[in-house]
């Protein structure tokens, strides 16, 4: 999908540079000598241009949707399910890494959200999710994370509140994971 492609932009850019260089070399060495070579190169050039155009559209679409507009009740319920909405909970050891703050946000979650944020989110992860402004800062992190992974997880369709809750719990592909269904059930009960 466009969203999966957009995450590999650097690798695709390197491939594009290699192909461009090779095309330039081949253009001067082969095209004028052999009509078949020209025909093959024309096909390759068309393919490269098509891939470039698609990649450009994907990258533009990747950030064009903006931050999701979610009700406060959604954040209240995530907070309730994660920590009984305790703003002073600090960090809890998960089986793999620390989850911190009232929304139990991991450092990698904060990093992913911060990479696409238009402005700095809280300076650093720990300050953002456990500091004096942790509720507001954590919401900004979540919104940017949802912007980054919402349509990626859903395959391009508009994400629902359920999708966002499951992404919060299960990561970039959380809306597809069976293990996030029970998490959504808790959030859904809270939402009423």
From TrEMBL:
Keywords: Antibiotic, Antimicrobial, Bacteriolytic enzyme, Disulfide bond, Glycosidase, Hydrolase, Membrane, Transmembrane, Transmembrane helix. The active site is at residues 82, 94. SUPFAM superfamilies: Lysozyme-like. Its EC number is 3.2.1.17. The keyword Membrane applies. GO terms for molecular function: lysozyme activity. The chain crosses the membrane at residues 48-67. GO terms for biological process: defense response to bacterium; killing of cells of another organism. Disulfide bonds join 79-85, 91-100, 128-137. It catalyses: Hydrolysis of (1->4)-beta-linkages between N-acetylmuramic acid and N-acetyl-D-glucosamine residues in a peptidoglycan and between N-acetyl-D-glucosamine residues in chitodextrins. It holds the Pfam family Destabilase. This is lysozyme.
């Amino acid at each position: 999908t466009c969203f999966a492609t957009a995450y590999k932009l650097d690798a695709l850019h390197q491939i594009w540079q290699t192909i461009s260089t090779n095309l330039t070399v081949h253009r001067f060495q082969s095209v004028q000598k052999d009509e078949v070579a020209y025909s093959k190169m024309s096909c390759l050039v068309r393919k490269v241009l098509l891939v470039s155009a698609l990649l450009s559209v994907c990258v533009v679409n990747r950030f064009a949707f903006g931050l999701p507009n979610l009700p406060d009740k959604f954040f209240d319920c995530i907070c309730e399910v994660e920590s009984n909405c305790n703003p002073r909970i600090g960090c809890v050891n998960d089986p793999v890494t620390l989850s911190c703050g009232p929304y139990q946000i991991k450092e990698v979650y904060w990093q992913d959200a911060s990479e696409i944020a238009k402005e700095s989110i809280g300076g650093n992860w720990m300050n953002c999710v456990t500091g004096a402004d942790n509720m507001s800062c954590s919401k900004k992190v979540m919104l940017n994370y949802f912007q980054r992974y919402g349509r990626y997880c859903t395959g391009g369709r508009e994400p629902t509140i359920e999708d966002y809750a499951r992404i919060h719990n299960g990561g970039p592909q959380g809306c597809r994971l069976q293990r996030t269904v029970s998490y959504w059930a808790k959030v859904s009960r809270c939402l009423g």
